[in-house]
Amino acid sequence: MLELVRRYVSGYVSLTNEEFALLAEKLEVRTFQRRVQLLRAGEVEYYMNFVVAGLVRMYFYRGKTEVITNIAREGELISSSSSFLSGMPSHYYIETLEPTTLLSITHDNLDEIYGKSVRIERVGRLMTTQFVMQKEEWEYECMRLDTRERFTRFVERYPDLLQRVTQKDLASYLNMKPETFSRLKNQIKKRPAVVKMSIK
């Protein structure tokens, strides 16, 4: 389980065994069943979570409609970042979509190990930068791409999520109506397979 985190962190900075031990000591293993709310709007986010197994979504309400802003799977982070960093109440709900195992760290514990290791602090800074860049790119795509392009781009990147997440949730995440998502998905199923032929 910790090896997954080590591989993830090594994508940013390679830590020594001693440095990684500092981080691992502060990580909490948390397990949840399907459809458990980890955070409700109005609560403070105390954890940054690394998904070891399962799926987690983050959303808010526009009127009575859920608007999903993130779906995190294995090897990804999820948290109400602004609340985690500021200590202010979150605008978001966070909920498991499958039985889920998380490795989590509190803000206080993260600050503590930042004070003990400059390299771990650098990991945190790089991860935060990457998160902000990905969020901005996703927001840009949602505004720039039309409905079909957003759907196609998503399917190319995350084909497994078509089987693991409900159409309603995926439609919300992709900012389209469920019936539009269903139509586009059916078009993919009906698309004839491409047969590659070798020319001799």
Automatic annotation (TrEMBL):
Protein name: Cyclic nucleotide-binding protein
CDD domains xref list: CAP_ED (cd00038)
Source superkingdom: Bacteria
Classification via InterPro entries: cNMP-bd_dom, cNMP-bd_dom_sf, RmlC-like_jellyroll
Listed SUPFAM superfamilies: cAMP-binding domain-like (SSF51206)
Gene3D superfamilies tied to this protein: Jelly Rolls
Domain Cyclic nucleotide-binding: 11-122
Organism (species): Puia dinghuensis
